[in-house]
Amino acid sequence: MRGQVVKNPTYQIVIHAVAITLLLLAALTLATKFGMIHCSQVPYWCSGYRAIISAIYGRTYPAVIILHGDEGMGDPRLLSRLLEDKCRIYADVEDVDTVSPGNLDRYDVVIIERARKLSPEQMDMLWDFTAKGGRILIIGDVGVEPESPAEYVQVEEFNEETNTTTKRVVNTWDRQDEFGNYVLFGTRFLGLKYHGNYCEDEDCEISGTISFKPDVLTAGLPNSAPFPLNFAVVEDLRSSVLGPHTVVATIDNVAPVYGQKAPYPAIIRTGYRMIYMAFPPEDLWELVDRETRSGTVPPYASVALIVLNICNWASS
Asked: What 3 state SS string does the chain have?
């Protein structure tokens, strides 16, 4: 009839299908980027996600940087070589003191280790990177020491017996900057409290057990195995601003320390955006490699394969 527009039903269906598909792809991309899901949880999605992110940013995905300081747990150069040799992931290695927030914008994944000292500004930088959708792996005793004792967040406690007030550090990962602003890196961002390294001297020997729960990060690993490495003793606060925690590995059969007792958290993830590891995976790999070269395959050799799972996480 004159004056009426004849709509093609097939055309409308195609348009709606394309729109729904684009919306689903956008939702999947955002959910994966912000760590709400792992790409492997959707069939064939991992390769699609990598292609989309590579197209959006115009670079190879993932772009990885390993940050480090002058002291603490970990060997960033060795970890970089392992990522390249075992996974073909090429990671930049930089001193955390030389990096500014703008430098991190071109990376998808930040790994930080061997950096016991972090300033409130550096903690803010890592927090902002993750809040924007970046992925972060924090290893061992990163950031447990301030540049100045005045940066610790302390609470006042009144002692009725002595009629005195003393100050106490509640969480060594929490800071305040020069303007008095709080950076609750431990309590709010990590959702963890650091108590100390299990071994504080070189003569300490550990003969514990590490146990794994079924997870993307533990795929292919044994249910449990001997564990010979030093590790950071942390208290899990169960959640952070990024969401609830999932403890996927614990260390047991070791003595109580710092008022804490086994099982100690060994690997904790918050969604798939942030991972905390209480020990450097490259140290375990190096130990296994050294013993294997001497003619003995240690009983914890398979645990070192967690490096491959870290690669899978970083590229998902």
From this structure: CCCCCCCCHHHHHHHHHHHHHHHHHHHHHHHHHCCCCCHHHCCCHHHHHHHHHHHHHCCCCCCEEEEECCCCCCCHHHHHHHHHHHHCCCEEEEEHHHCCHHHHHHCCEEEECCCCECCHHHHHHHHHHHHCCCEEEEECCCCCECCCHHHECEEEEEECCCCEEEEEECCCCEEECCCCCEEEHHHHHHCEEEEEECCCCCCCCCCEEEEECCCHHHCCCCCEEEECCCCEEEEECCEECCEEEEEEEEEECCCCECCECCCEEEEEEECCCEEEECCCHHHHHHHHHHHHHCCCCCCCHHHHHHHHHHHHHHCC
Question: Which residues does residue 265 pair with via DSSP β-bridges, in sequence order?
Answer: 250
Could you give the CA distance from residue 128 to residue 56 in angstroms, rounded to a whole number?
20
* pLDDT tens column, 149-200: 999 999 887 776 777 788 889 999 999 998 989 999 999 999 999 999 999 8
- Tell how strand 274-277 and strand 264-270 pair up: antiparallel
Return contacts of 15-19, CB within 8 angstroms, 24+ apart: none
Q: Using one digit for the tens of pLDDT, what is the confidence trace for 265-312?
A: 999 999 999 999 999 999 999 999 999 999 999 999 999 999 999 999
The residues pairing with 233 across neighbouring beta strands, listed in sequence order, are: 196
**Model confidence at 3: pLDDT above 70:** no
Q: Provide CB contacts within 8 A for 26, sequence distance 6+.
A: none
Using one digit for the tens of pLDDT, what is the confidence trace for 69-87?
A: 999 999 999 999 999 999 9
Phi (first) and psi of residue 241, to 5 degrees: -65, -20
Residue 7 reports pLDDT greater than 70: no
Q: Which amino acid is at 13?
A: I
